[in-house]
Design goal:
Elements lengths: L8 H6 L5 H17 L5 E5 L5 H9 L4 E3 L1 E2 L4 H11 L8 E2 L27 E7 L7 H11 L3 E11 L1 E2 L7 H13 L6 E2 H10 L3 E8 L3 E7 L1
C-alpha cells in the first residue's frame, strides 16, 4: 500500500482476526443470553476481542443494541467484523480499559431506547467473556467499580469464563490453565467466584444464575 493511503473496506475485512474459542463457545453462551437478555435493550460488551461474539449475538438477538468495547489495539479488528456483518444494531466499538485509579467517563451513558420520563440512563445489560482471568486483580476491582456508574437501575450482568470455588480449582484443566496464565503474566489467573461475587454485590448486583458451561467454564448472571 502506498504511503498515506488508507486501506479499503475489503482489505480491512480480509484482515479481520479470528478466535477458534469464540466459534466453540458462542452457541452455549447464546442459550444463556437469550434467556437473561430477553427483556434487555442496550448491551455493553466489555473486552470484545476479535468482535466475533458481537456479530453472532447481535444477529441472533436483533432487539438488542450491542455496544462493543475494548482497548484501542483491538478496535480495528472489531471494526472489520462489524463492517462485514453490516448489522443495524452494532454501533462503532468504543475504547474502554479497566483502570486502577477512578476516572470520569468510564464509558458513554446512553439514554435507553424507550426510556421513561424518569430520565433513566445507562446500559441495562453487560456481557464479558474470558476477561477477568486476563486482568490483574486490581483491574478486576476497577472494572466492577466503574460499572456502577454506567449500569441502569435494573441492569443484568453476564460474565463467562473459568472460576474457582472455595479456593479450589474446579478441574485439572483449569489448574493447568491457571499455571499457563501465570507463566505468561504473573498478575493473571483463574478468579475465585466468591471474590468476584463480592465485587458484584458491592455495586448492588445479586447473583441469579450460575450456569455450567462446556470446557469447565461458567456463566455467572447478576441482576441489579
Amino acid at each position: 500500500m502506498a504511503p498515506g493511503l488508507s486501506p479499503s473496506r475489503d482489505t480491512v475485512i480480509a484482515m479481520k482476526p479470528h478466535s477458534p474459542s469464540c466459534e466453540r463457545n458462542r452457541e452455549p453462551i447464546l442459550v444463556v443470553l437469550r434467556e437473561h437478555f430477553a427483556d434487555r435493550r442496550h448491551v455493553l460488551e466489555i473486552g470484545s476481542g476479535t468482535g466475533q461474539h458481537a456479530v453472532h449475538f447481535a444477529a441472533a438477538m436483533p432487539w438488542l443494541v450491542w455496544q462493543c468495547s475494548d482497548g484501542a489495539q483491538y478496535l480495528p479488528g472489531i471494526r472489520a467484523w462489524l463492517d462485514e456483518a453490516r448489522l443495524p444494531n452494532t454501533p462503532a466499538a468504543i475504547e474502554l480499559q479497566a483502570v486502577t485509579a477512578p476516572r470520569a467517563g468510564f464509558s458513554p451513558q446512553p439514554v435507553l431506547p424507550g426510556a421513561g420520563d424518569d430520565g433513566a440512563v445507562g446500559f441495562d445489560a453487560v456481557f464479558s467473556a474470558n476477561t477477568l482471568h486476563i486482568m490483574g486483580w486490581p483491574q478486576v476491582e476497577a472494572l466492577f467499580a466503574g460499572l456502577d456508574a454506567v449500569l441502569a437501575k435494573d441492569a443484568t450482568v453476564v460474565v463467562y469464563g473459568p472460576f474457582n470455588y472455595g479456593g479450589q480449582f474446579s478441574s485439572d484443566s483449569n489448574r493447568e490453565f491457571d499455571g499457563w496464565l501465570k507463566a505468561r503474566d504473573p498478575v493473571s489467573g483463574v478468579r475465585d467466584f466468591e471474590a468476584v461475587d463480592g465485587l458484584a454485590a458491592g455495586i448492588g448486583l445479586r447473583l441469579v444464575a450460575d450456569v455450567a458451561m462446556p470446557a469447565n467454564n461458567r456463566c455467572l448472571v447478576w441482576r441489579r
